[in-house]
Amino acid sequence: MSFYVYLSGEIHTDWREEIMQGAKAAGLDIVFTAPVTDHDASDAAGDMLGEQSNNFWRDHQSAKVNAIRTQTMIEQADLVVVRFGDKYKQWNAAFDAGYCAALNKPYITLHAEDIVHPLKEVDANAKAWCTTTEQVVDILKYVQQP
Q1: Sheet of 107-110: strands edge to edge?
Q2: pLDDT of 27 higher than 80
Q3: Where are the chain's structural domains?
Q4: What is the CA radius of gyration of the chain?
Q5: Residue 44 burial by Cβ neighbours in a 10 Å radius (0-12, 13-18, 19+)
Q6: CA-CA distance, 14 to 48, in Å (whole number)?
Q7: What's phi and psi for 51, nearest 5 deg?
């Protein structure tokens, strides 16, 4: 039986590929899903609904269109991995973690030790905090064992 994992958060590194490759190498039966990771495409998600008068309304419109995908995939997931990188503040990732918490959906956080303090509430509800993609793969191996 396939296990569904949603990979949320930071889009500027290859952490998703590392987890997917590690799971594949371990022979795990996992279906991975993710948000749109092309930054420009994500920002333009609502543009098909018409031009907006300023960036606030463009972002608002695109956030709602992106939420269709994000909320659906989080709800369908068995587990969510939420990655916080160091290049940008990922408010969307924090929102996704909060959505998981509200749904009582298990999630793992993945981030460096130097941002433990600002993420203390997010980590407090996570089922695990990882600092490497290898740790995430190890958890996936554990939860998939017979």
Answers
A1: 30-33, 3-9, 79-83, 107-110, 128-130
A2: yes
A3: 3-144
A4: 16
A5: middle
A6: 29
A7: -70, 140
Contact predicate 69/35, CB 8 Å: yes
pLDDT digits (tens, 9 = 90+) for 68-117: 999 999 999 999 999 999 877 788 899 999 999 999 999 999 999 999 99
Least Cα distance to 25 among 110, 139, 108, 141 occurs for 141
Instruction: Count Cβ neighbours within 10 Å for each residue of 73-92 and write b for 16 or more, e otherwise.
Output: bbeebebbbbbbbeeeebeb
Identity (one letter) of the amino acid at 144? Q
Mean pLDDT of the chain: 94
Q: What is the DSSP string of 67-102?
A: HHHHHHHHHH-SEEEEE--SSS--HHHHHHHHHHHH
Q: Which two three-digit tokens encode residue 124? A: 């407090």
Q: Are 33 and 4 in contact (CB under 8 A)?
A: yes
Give the whole-angstrom CA distance, residue 130 versus residue 146.
23
Domain spanning 3-144 has what CATH number? 3.40.50.450
CB-CB contact of 15 with 133 (8 Å): yes
